[in-house]
Structure formats: C-alpha cells, structure tokens
Design goal:
heterodimer, A: about 130 residues, alpha/beta, five-stranded parallel beta sheet, B: about 290 residues, seven-stranded mixed beta sheet, three-stranded antiparallel beta sheet, 12 helices, about 40% helix, about 20% strand, binds S-adenosylmethionine
C-alpha cells in the first residue's frame, strides 16, 4: 500500500484547521498543521508536503509571503498550493496565482468544494 | 395527502415534463411545493390541489413542474465528457466540417454551467474556431433556470464547483459578491425554453448534443421517445452525449456507442469501427 499524501494545513484559527483536517483525513490524506506562514516555512525545511492549504491573513507571516517563500525554497517535488481564504476579489486571486498558487478556495467552503479542487489538481481520483 | 391528490400531481408532472414521481417520494411534494402554497396565501398543499382542479390553472401547473425539477448542475460536471469533447469530438468535427460551422445543443441546460463550460472549452483550446460560425443552443423546460442561465451570474459557491481558478480569472468578472461570465462567451449562446416532450424540429440540426442528467427522471417509453426525437436533430456524423448514469442501450436503436468514447453515441448506421477512423472520417462518407 502506498503511503497517504501529506497535506499541510496553514491557518491561524484552530477551529478552521480542525475542520480542514477532519475533511482531509476523511478523504484519506495525512495532515500536519501550522498556525502561521513562518511555522509553515519551518515545517517545510524538514518535510515536503504534497500540498498545502494556505490561509491569507495570519500573524507572523501571511499566506502570500509564505507562498513566495515556499516557491523560493525550490522544494522537490514542489508542493501544490491551494490558497484558502476569505479574500475573494479578483486582484487577490491574480496576486496568488502570480505568486505560484495552483488553486484558490474562497471561504466559507464545504467538503464538495474541497473535493472538486483536489480533483482538479489530480490529488483525488475522479469519481 | 390523499391518493387522489398524489395521482393528480404525479399525472400532471408526467404529462407536462416526463418526470416520474413514485408514492415513496410524496414528501418531496410537501417540501418543494410548500413555497408555492405560502406564496399564494393558501392554507395547505390540499388547498393548492383544489386550485389545480379548477379550470385555467396553467400558470400554476408550470410553476409546479418547475418546482419539482431537479436543477443540480456544475461547471465541467463529471469532467471526462469535456475531456472527450476537447480531445476527440471537436477535433474530429473540425477536420470534417468544410463548411466551417458547428452547432452544439445543451438540451437540459439548467442554470447554464454546461453550455458555458462548452463555450470555455472552445475558447481556450480551439483558437482555430475563431473564424468559424459557432452556435451553442441551450434549452430547458424551466423559465426560472433559463433566466439565471442567461444572466451568466453565479455565486462564489457555484464558481467553486468544477471550475479551475484560472478559468474563473480568464472568463468571469467579479461583480459585488457574484461572478459574471464575460459577454464574449455569452454572445455565442442562445437560450430557449424547450420541452423535450414537445416538437424539437424548430431547433434544426446539430453536430453535438449534450442531453445529460435529465433522462434519468423519466420512464422508459419517455426516454425512448426523446432519444428518437433527438436522433432526428443530429447530423449524420454528429454525436449525442449522455450523463454518467444514462445509456441508449435497450432504449433506442438509432444510436450506438462510439467505440472508445464513454458516454458518446452516434447514428448507428454511421459509426466507424474504430475511434481513430471516426476522427479521420472523410466528409463524403457521411453526407
Ligand atoms: C439535473 S439538471 C441537468 C443539468 C445539466 N445538463 C447537467 O448535467 O448538469 C436537469 C434539467 O432538466 C430540466 N428538465 C426536466 N424535464 C425537462 C423536459 N421535459 N424538457 C426539458 N428540460 C427538462 C430541468 O428543468 C433541469 O434544469
């Protein structure tokens, strides 16, 4: 059996992390958590997640800075990054895509949205 | 609800739209017709049914049919049909259509995600079609969903179902907290109220027909009747695409499956033996 894909959930809200982790685990992923961008960058120095669910507004280091830092680390293989935020304007989405985000989820979201996005990235087999 | 009341509604639905509702789904009537009961200031579903028994309740009948249809849909629903369009069906038609014209029909388009997904596929992957005459006709029985489809405006939740974020950026404008598809995509699509049980001849002939996730609600004779009607609306080398739970098998011998292309059907008499030859079918062989 192959080991499950690892998702790093980055959000300063413990509740939101919990909800995401529950959904991801129910979809068969392994999960790790970070409470802000800096913690995420530190985590990635020793582990390379398969994908990152990344909030935007956080203390210490925000999501877009974290995304740029992760891309600059040249991780191998590069993790897919899904921004997951209440920021929902076109300029913010474009900013995230330019910084190297692979997908973008606007909060609030549900399991179906998460599943669709992971399917689009090929992280979940299509039904 | 009395048996007679249930039968009245079930008959109305079957005759007007093809929808089959079995007695075990009686609760659906209560939940879906509740809003109409309240809107009309009536006391109960039984009172609504009394109104139905009066002559001249046509508007109410339409309203009931609309309330009972399932409109669930999403962008690029089930994804693989759109891959098939992109990889096989459309490239094949581009080779075969010397007329440089394509007509595509989304036969139960609900709130429009299906025809807009087709329009985005054409725009993103087939720049060559820029010089072609492309027509997408999107129809549904329900005036309510057609109005939404025409507006091309979706909630944040709806654009997160099945639509890659790059496509949202490319093809939509953000208007307040809604997302509106760009006019250049909307322009190619004609939305029309069409009941699949009615006369379809006025629609003309199509190269591609998508009739997805609607026949599942009908009984066998109705499915057969509609498939035959659709067969008359498809060009000799055109295709029909059905939903994941739908098939022509045992229902309509006018069609048979295109080998190698799941969910894609062609006129039985014109199906080439191999999908590769389908792609290279000479125009003379099918006209
Ligand atoms: C579940 S939606 C399918 C939407 C889209 N084709 C898809 O696959 O996602 C079914 C649609 O069929 C429409 N419909 C039901 N009965 C119909 C009929 N007799 N003629 C035309 N449309 C009908 C409903 O109004 C509804 O919008």
């Amino acid at each position: 059996m192959t080991s499950p894909l690892l998702c790093l959930v980055v959000d300063d809200s413990r509740v939101i992390r919990r909800v995401a982790v529950d959904m991801l685990q129910s979809l068969g992923f392994a999960t790790a958590e970070a409470e802000h961008g800096l913690a995420a960058v530190k985590f990635c120095r020793t582990n390379v997640p398969d994908f990152v669910l990344l909030d935007w507004n956080m203390p210490e280091m925000d999501g877009i800075t974290c995304l740029r830092a992760l891309r600059a680390m040249d991780l191998e293989p590069p993790p897919r990054v899904v921004m997951c935020t209440t920021e929902s304007g076109m300029p913010k989405i474009c900013e995230a895509l330019e910084a190297g985000a692979d997908e973008y989820i606007m909060k609030p979201y549900d399991r179906n949205v998460l599943l669709d996005k992971l399917e689009l990235l090929g992280l979940v087999a299509r039904a | 609800m009395t048996g007679a009341d249930f039968t009245l509604i079930a008959t109305l639905l079957k005759e007007r739209s093809g929808l089959i509702i079995t007695p075990d789904k009686g609760y659906l009537l209560e939940t879906r017709l509740g809003p109409i009961v309240r809107e009309r200031g009536l006391a109960s579903l039984a009172a609504l049914i009394e109104v139905l028994r009066q002559p001249g309740s046509d508007a109410l009948k339409n309203q009931i049919v609309e309330a009972m249809t399932t409109n669930e849909t999403s962008f690029f629903r089930d994804s693989h049909p759109f891959d098939t369009l992109r990889k096989s069906v459309i490239p094949g038609l581009i080779q075969r259509r010397a007329t440089r014209a394509l007509r595509i029909w989304s036969a139960a388009c609900s709130t429009g995600q299906e025809p807009y997904s087709i329009a985005m596929t054409l725009k993103d992957h087939f720049p060559i079609l820029g010089g072609w005459r492309i027509e997408i006709v999107a129809t549904d029985i329900s005036a309510g969903v057609l109005e939404r489809a025409r507006s091309g405006t979706y909630s944040t939740f709806e654009v997160q179902r099945g639509l890659p974020i790059q496509m949202l950026v490319r093809h939509f404008d953000n208007v307040d907290d809604q997302w509106r598809i760009k006019d250049e995509l909307r322009r190619n699509i004609t939305f029309r109220p069409i009941n699949l049980l009615g006369d379809l001849a006025s629609l003309g002939t199509f190269d591609i027909v998508l009739c997805r996730n609607v026949l599942i609600y009908f009984d066998q004779p109705t499915k057969t009747r509609i498939m035959h009607a659709i067969a008359h609306r498809i060009a000799p080398d055109g295709v029909l695409m059905l939903g994941g739970a739908e098939s022509v098998i045992g229902l309509c011998d006018a069609f048979s499956g295109v080998p190698g292309l799941r969910g894609v059907y062609g006129h039985a008499a014109h199906i080439p033996p191999k999908p590769a030859s389908w792609l290279n079918l000479p125009v003379s062989a099918v006209s």
